[in-house]
Design brief:
With about 500 residues, this protein is an alpha/beta fold. It is about 30% helix and about 25% strand. The chain is built from 16 helices and 22 strands.
Length: about 500
């Protein structure tokens, strides 16, 4: 089998999508609407060649050299060592001292443009070429047949050279859609898109439409343009993140709570803590997080809903020393800007944290905040499930807080299939007894092992979380309308107040 040399595109994330780069000495199409990041990617491609002592040539029909230098400067780059050939003016196309007239038809303009390009390439002998953009050539050709014939001439010309070529197309003049004939001419096609949402920052994503002879990662991949280039986030594939780990239970530090799950949820699983607002979901999740830090394990909290300062103050009032965990380096807390992040960027950030810090516990607060952060994204729950599977393959325990609508009776979970999303589901409910609102905790599902089917009372005070005895003398706790079935006058099975900390 013939081996094709692979070269880097100059973008680490894109190379990961391509599983190592692109075959050298081929013609590639980079297409996308204006503002989608094509020029930035093209410059990264040429600068990668420069870093490897390869000659690079940027042929531009649409932008001036000065405009390209401005783009490069915005990323902190210099174009020194990269040849830039401008064909943006009619004088350069038709030759100096020649005026456009009826004698210089569009056929002559296009033909002389191609000749100028060929002459420049033969003179410089570059290893990498960017041609920006095909839209201007399409305008010069005016006739689709003539345009395609000239593209074929270009392909045949470059096929005889040791040159890798990026053809850039901004899709203007082509009804805003891809040219299938052009796709068939190129060895590979990369499509960049820019999506404007109803609120928040624009989303960008890329897709490898085709790449002959390469087993690339198909589908859409989110990316952002930052100073320094494109940050591409390859689509998650859980099977790529498998590592060996011991599937032992993770303790909360509260024996009664651990007993509900026969020692605790297993490593490599996902836990969903659900219930109405104010039932103690976040506090319960923080208890697992604080216990992990106390064992010397690394943890990370992604906060969508609450300000970190408020969260820390509330945790401190309940005896959870989160700030000391942060100071010790055991805990990292990330405040997520809901309007600025894409699912791919969020997932990539979580995995990076896990891999670089050897994180053993991830907490997401909350699922509704995650959903609200990206309301126009498609298949959000499917993407979150793939993230949880990837974390599970790495032996990470993931705890997700999920608020329910309503306080009593039939509460809703916003149409989310929790059985699909989580391995373990912990349910918190309010109930009334003796004129007081109390909280109940139960485990309704645990894929990783046995669990109690009891319903226990849970109380939270300045000493933290307490879990009481099974509510065996109450019926209807889960419905929110419990009835006491014990003997009147007998000591109540419910927990009472305990003194405050000294």
């Amino acid at each position: 089998m013939m081996f094709e040399e692979r070269i880097s595109t100059g973008n680490h994330g894109l190379d990961a999508v391509l599983r190592g780069g692109i075959p050298a000495n081929r013609l590639y199409l980079v297409e996308g609407s204006p503002g989608s990041g094509k020029t930035t990617l093209a410059l990264e491609f040429l600068m990668q060649g420069r870093a490897q002592k390869e000659r690079g040539l940027y042929i531009t029909l649409s932008e001036t050299k000065n405009e390209l230098e401005v783009v490069a400067a915005s990323h902190g780059w210099s174009l020194e060592g990269i040849d830039i050939f401008e064909l943006s003016s009619a004088d350069e196309v038709l030759g100096p001292g020649r005026d456009q007239s009826i004698l210089h038809s569009w056929e002559m303009e296009l033909g002389e443009t191609i000749k100028l390009i060929q002459t420049k390439v033969e003179t410089i002998k570059p290893a990498r070429v960017v041609f920006d953009s095909l839209s201007e050539m399409r305008l010069l050709a005016q006739d689709p047949l003539r345009y395609r014939r000239q593209l074929l001439v270009l392909k045949q010309f470059f096929s005889g050279l040791s040159t890798t070529v990026f053809l850039v197309d901004d899709l203007t003049g082509s009804s805003g859609s891809s040219d299938n004939h052009l796709h068939s001419l190129c060895h590979g096609v990369l499509t960049l898109s820019r999506l404007t949402l109803d609120f928040g920052a624009a989303r960008r994503r890329l897709q490898v439409q085709k790449l002959r002879g390469v087993d690339f990662i198909a589908g859409y991949h989110d990316f952002v343009i930052r100073k320094g280039g494109l940050d591409v986030y390859p689509r998650l594939i859980a099977a790529d993140h498998h590592t060996r780990f011991v599937n032992d239970p993770v303790s909360s530090g509260i024996p009664e709570l651990d007993a509900l799950l026969s020692g605790g949820p297993a490593r490599g699983t996902g836990v969903l803590i659900t219930g109405p607002a104010g039932a103690g979901k976040t506090t319960l999740a923080l208890q697992y997080l604080a216990a992990a830090c106390a064992r010397g394990e690394k943890a990370v909290l992604y906060e969508f809903d609450e300000r970190i300062g408020t969260l820390f103050s509330r945790a401190e009032a309940m005896g959870l020393k989160l700030q000391s965990c942060v100071d010790a380096g055991s805990l990292v807390v990330r405040q997520i800007d809901a309007a600025e992040i894409s699912p791919g960027e969020f997932a990539a950030g979580v995995l990076k944290e896990v891999q670089q810090r050897n994180v053993k516990l991830v907490m997401i607060d909350s699922l509704s905040g995650y959903m609200a952060a990206m309301p126009q994204e498609q298949q959000l729950i499917l993407q979150l499930h793939e993230l949880l599977s990837s974390l599970g393959q790495s032996g990470v325990l993931t705890i997700i807080v999920n608020p329910q609508a309503g306080f009593f009776g039939n509460m809703q979970t916003h149409g989310i299939d929790v059985s699909y999303l989580a391995d373990t589901v912990i349910l918190l409910r309010f109930f009334e007894a003796a004129g007081r609102i109390r909280k109940a905790i139960s485990v309704v599902k645990n894929r990783s092992g046995r669990h109690e089917d009891t319903i226990r009372e849970m109380r939270i005070d300045d000493r933290g979380v307490r879990v009481g005895e099974p509510l065996s003398e109450f019926n209807g706790v889960l419905t929110g309308t419990p009835q006491y079935t014990g003997n009147t006058g007998v000591e109540t099975p419910l927990m009472e107040d305990r003194g405050s900390r000294a």
